[in-house]
Specification:
Order of helices and strands: EEHHHEEHEHEH
Shape: globular
CATH architecture: 3-Layer(aba) Sandwich
Largest sheet: 6 strands, mixed
Number of strands: 6
CATH superfamily: Gcn5-related N-acetyltransferase (GNAT)
Helix content: 25-40%
Amino acid sequence: MTLAAFDLPAGAFTLRRATASDVGAIVSLLADDELRASVESTVREARAPYDRAFEAINADPAQLLVVAVSPAGEVVATMQLTSIPGLARAGALRMQIEAVRVHSNLRGNGLGGAMITWAIAEGRRRGARLVQLTSDHSRQSAHRFYERLGFEASHVGFKLTL
């Protein structure tokens, strides 16, 4: 089922919920990234962890993993949306946007912006009062991209690898 259609200079792209058959293409998009390539490439051949993760995401109604498909039918972009209920902000629902990836050959043509704009609208549709995302501090071009879309760098994030 098509969630959205984007008519862009590079063609007409569709956005849909990811399926199990998309996992390989999604992993390839994740690995096509200078910060994640070494991590993803070490397990790319070991498909089972990705398949288990997909099944967990797909079974959870708070999660939405989507892919953008090119006019040729190729998966060329992805992102994951997570609805997070909380007590802060008077019980506000948050929409977290994660793992946004657009194929390197298609960056700069408006697909990423169209996807994020759709994600914001989807957050509103679900009743979210806040949309949030994180971006590695070294990704300066991504920061400019998100700022152009109205996001503000308002917090400092911390991670602990387990």
